[in-house]
Write a structure and sequence with these properties.
With 558 residues, this protein is of the alpha+beta class. It folds into 3 domains: 176 residues, no CATH class; 100 residues, no CATH class; 210 residues, Intergrase catalytic core (hpI Integrase, Chain A, Orthogonal Bundle). The protein is 33% helix and 9% strand. It is built from 16 helices and 13 strands. Strand 7 and strand 8 form a beta hairpin. The protein starts with 16 loop residues before the first strand and ends in a 10-residue tail after the last helix.
Length: 558
């Protein structure tokens, strides 16, 4: 195969570096006998000291330039440690091909070698041993999706994968990771395996963005969890029942935290996590994480890349047993509990900034700097809205003025956008007279319009309150209700895990005599079976009524 090379010479001529122009075996890039001479002397190429100074640099060529450009260090003139990995740039029109773990600058005075033809090319390289750890990234159409490939000596051919994106920086990082993995035998190019790292990356790019912001955050945590426990380079098809059970045991015993770590560490948001607390984790929490992993695999079975190839042919964890709670705690709110909380709700306060619409000096121009003000919190409104609509607290707290449809008869309606719903379910549902009264009071107290939040955060009125703030209001309300009950000589006890979601169960149970479809539309349930099996509860009154209306079966006469 024709090549022009310039390599180390003990006689003091050209030193240390070799640049090669190779012709592909399959696609002609020029004349087969073409030879191009570069750098005849050390003065053109530089000294060994110059070679040591070569630093990282990205190499890019315009269309019609060098088609295969290889740069190798001579170990004899390098610092101790042996040869460094090399960089390969393979140029179809505007293509970057990067290899392994170090970038090499082009020496001064040596320019890219123009090819004898232009246009889109698919390049084949001599399958020599030096290609053993070389990863190429290339594109087939200008600006199109990128691909990666490497030589497989076992089949004397190339293995390739579609990267399903056109981001060159990410493609180069991928090439570096795979070149490193080639040396460890963990790459997905030669093994043909789909690693968990790649599976999760594709899921986060193509599926997770379709979910709400809160669920996307949970997805990121679960990616860290399973990469930490199972390993990022694990073959996605080789998650065994043993791995499944060991994960359940480790989480149940509190040996790993929700990010898959066994000790203190830094979370992705740069905050510190103390690590596992040692407290046992309930079956529902573990099952939720495993259900997410199963859903990722189901997505991989259905999703296909730009070439129409599916990531997986089957779900490898299908049929694995989920941990189940024999007696799940799903507390149901009652009207008495709601009334007790409403009686003390106005005593729960919050501090707001001067820019907040509830601040006493909001909109007033004064020479003196304004201070924080203590005002009544949103607890009353949140309680009535969650109880009256049956919606999740996450959907209620993120409502905007634009979501209100108060012209709908008889009392109005609320548009529930998909981004605020846990399942991404968009709907519009009518409201009750109690809910309408609360909305009218909000509009009188703090008028707003458009995308302004109905419940602005105390420290930043442009954003809605977060779940931690609403939960803090709930806890303070419960504490006040208990204190009031003790002062009056009565008991006020709530079951564990009692929260805003208990009103969603209350809503479903109180309407269980209505048609299931109507209740599902009002409360935002997409699956009627979930409504009946999880949210609607048996209660004393309905059981007694069933007994009173029991019909006797008799044999037909005549």
């Amino acid at each position: 195969m024709p090549r022009t090379s310039l390599s180390h010479d003990h006689g003091g001529h050209a030193r240390g570096l070799r640049f090669e122009h190779r012709h592909p075996q399959r696609v002609g890039l020029g004349r087969e006998d073409e030879e191009i001479q570069i750098g005849e002397s050390a003065s053109q190429l530089g000294s060994p000291e110059d070679a040591r100074k070569l630093g990282p640099r990205e190499v890019a060529f315009q269309p019609g330039t060098l088609d295969s450009f290889t740069h190798d260090h001579d170990p004899k003139i390098l610092d101790a440690g042996g040869p460094e990995p090399s960089l390969e740039v393979n140029q179809g029109p505007q293509v970057l091909l990067r290899r392994e773990t170090s970038d090499i600058s082009q020496p001064e005075g040596v320019s890219a070698i123009p090819a004898s033809s232009t246009g889109m090319k698919e390049v084949e390289v001599d399958p020599a041993s030096e290609n053993a750890c070389r990863v190429r990234v290339y594109e087939r159409t200008i600006g199109g999706p990128l691909y990666a490939r490497t030589w497989d000596p076992t089949i004397r051919s190339y293995r390739q994968v579609a990267l399903e994106h056109s981001n060159r920086e990410r493609a180069k990082d991928y090439a570096l990771e795979q070149a490193e993995a080639l040396r460890k035998g963990q790459d997905e190019l030669l093994t043909g395996s789909l690693t968990l790292a790649r599976l999760f990356r594709l899921y986060m790019e193509h599926r997770s963005p379709r979910k709400s912001a809160e669920v996307q955050k949970a997805d990121k945590r679960r990616v860290d969890l399973f990469k930490g426990v199972l390993g990022a380079e694990r073959d996605a098809k080789r998650v065994t029942p043993r791995d499944w059970q060991e994960f359940i045991d480790a989480r149940r015993e509190g040996q790993i935290c929700g990010h898959g770590e066994a000790g203190p560490h830094e979370r992705p948001d740069k905050t510190q996590c103390p690590g596992p607390t040692g407290r046992r984790v309930g079956p529902r929490t573990i099952a939720t994480d495993l259900a997410w992993l199963r859903a990722v695999y189901n997505w991989a079975v259905d999703w296909s890349d730009a070439e129409g190839r599916r990531l997986l042919s089957a779900n490898p964890v299908r049929g694995y047993e989920m941990p189940r709670e024999k007696n799940p705690r799903r507390p149901l709110a009652t009207a008495d509990q709601l009334e007790a909380l409403l009686q003390v709700s106005d005593q729960v306060t919050m501090e707001v900034v001067p820019e907040h619409p509830l601040h006493p000096e909001y909109g007033l121009k004064t020479d003196e700097p304004k201070k924080l003000a203590t005002v009544r919190s949103y607890l009353r409104e949140l309680l009535i809205l969650t109880n009256g609509t049956g919606r999740r607290i996450g959907a209620v707290r993120t409502l905007t003025f634009a979501d209100l449809r108060l012209d709908v008869k008889p009392w109005g309606a609320i548009h529930w956008p998909a981004h605020s719903d846990k399942a991404g379910y968009e709907s519009t549902a009518e409201i009750s007279v109690e809910v309408r009264a609360v909305l009218d009071a909000i509009l009188d107290e703090r008028p707003g319009a458009g995308s302004a939040p109905l419940f602005p955060a105390p420290s930043d009125p442009t954003k809605p309150v977060d779940k931690y703030f609403t939960d803090k209001l709930r806890q303070r309300g419960i504490a006040l209700a208990r204190r009031k009950a003790r002062e009056e000589g009565r008991a006020f006890e709530l079951p564990s895990r009692w929260g805003f979601h208990s009103f969603r169960r209350k809503f479903a149970t109180e309407l269980k005599t209505a048609p299931d479809k109507d209740v599902a539309d009002l409360g935002g349930w997409r699956d009627v079976n979930t409504l009946r099996q999880v949210y609607q509860r048996s209660d004393h009154e309905s059981r007694v009524a069933a007994l009173m209306n029991r019909l006797e079966l008799r044999e037909a006469k005549g």
